[in-house]
Amino acid sequence: MTKRLLWAEFLCLFLVLPVVVAVALPTGWMFPALFAFTALGVILLHVTPGFRWGDLVRGAGRIDRRLVGAFALATILCGGAVILTLRPEAFLILPRQQPGLMLMILLLYPVVSALPQELVFRPLFFRRYGTILPAGKPAILLNAAVFSLAHLMYWNWPALLMTFAGGLVFAHAYERQGNFPAAVVLHSVAGGILFALGLGVFFYTGFVQRPF
Q1: Cα of 176 vs its chain's centroid, Å
Q2: What is the largest CA-CA distance in the chain?
Q3: For residues 22-41, average pLDDT
Q4: Residue 192 and residue 152: Cα distance in Å, rounded?
Q5: Is the model's pLDDT at 207 over the cut of 80?
Q6: Residue 5 to residue 57: CA distance in whole angstroms
Q7: Separation of alpha carbons 82 and 197, rounded Å
Q8: Residue environment code for 110-142, b if the CB has 16+ CB neighbours within 10 A, otherwise e
Q9: 195 near 76, Cβ under 8 Å?
Q10: pLDDT tens for residues 120-153?
Q11: Is residue 55 situated within a structural domain?
Q12: Is the pLDDT of residue 86 over 90?
C-alpha cells in the first residue's frame, strides 16, 4: 500500500470519523458508530503486513505492578479532585447507589471497552501507520491526541483532558515498553477508577450537549 493511501486511511479513521460522530450523528447512533469504527480497525489490523495476533500477548508476565499501583493512585487523586470540583454531587454515585452496576462495569469494562480501544489506538496506530508518522515522543503525543479526539463526542473538556493524559500512559506502555497487556491493564484500571469516582457523568451520551 502506498503512503498516500495510508495517509488517507489514517485521516479518515482517526480524524474524519471521530469528528463526524461528534458533530453530525444523533446521540443514539454514537455507540453503534463506535462499534463499527472498532470493527473496521480490527479488520485493518488483521490485514496489516507483518502483524501477528500472537505478538499482543507478549509482556503479560512482566507487567510492572508498581507502575500500575502508582498510576492507580495518580488516577484516584486527580480524578477525585476533578469530580469534587466540578460535580461533587456525583462523587462515588455508582458505589453508593448502584453497586451492582458498578460491579458489572468493573467486570466488563476491560473486555468490552478497554481491550477494543487499545487494539485500535495502539497496535493499529503504531503498526499499520508507523511508517508515515513521526517516531518517538511525537508519535506518542499524536497517539494521545487522536485518542482524546475520539472522545470529542462527549463535548466536555474533562473527558478530552483525561483521555489525553491516559493516552500518553497507554501509548508509552505499548510503544516504548512493547507491552500491549500492560496498556490494557492500565486502561482497565483507569476506567474502573473513573466510573467508581463518579466521572462516568463525563462519558455518558445521555448527558451530551453539543455547543451548537
Answers
A1: 17
A2: 54
A3: 87
A4: 20
A5: no
A6: 29
A7: 10
A8: beebbbbbbbbbbbbbbbbbeeeeeeeeebbeb
A9: no
A10: 999 999 999 999 998 889 999 999 999 999 999 9
A11: no
A12: yes
Q: What span, in angstroms and rounded, lies between the C-alpha atoms of 199 and 83?
A: 6
Structural domains in the chain (count): 1
> Within a domain: residue 5?
no
- Is 103 within a domain? yes
Asked whether residue 57 is assigned to any structural domain, the reply reads no
* C-alpha distance from residue 189 to each of 23, 33, 195, 205 (Å): 30, 25, 10, 22
134 in Cβ contact with 142 (< 8 Å):
yes
Mean pLDDT of 105-119: 96
What residue type is assigned to position 26 of the chain?
Answer: P
Residue 159 is inside which H or E element, if any? Answer: helix 157-171
Residues 116 and 147: their CA atoms lie apart, in Å, by 13
Q: What is the 3-state secondary structure (H, E, C) of 68-101?
A: HHHHHHHHHHHHHHHHHHHCHHHCCHHHHHCHHH
pLDDT band at 103 (very low <50, low <70, confident <90, very high): very high
- Residue span of the structural domain in which 168 resides: 65-212
Distance between CA atoms of residues 141 and 107, nearest Å: 30
Grid cell of 62 as nine digits: 512482566
Residue 45's nearest CA partner among 118, 124, 105 is 124
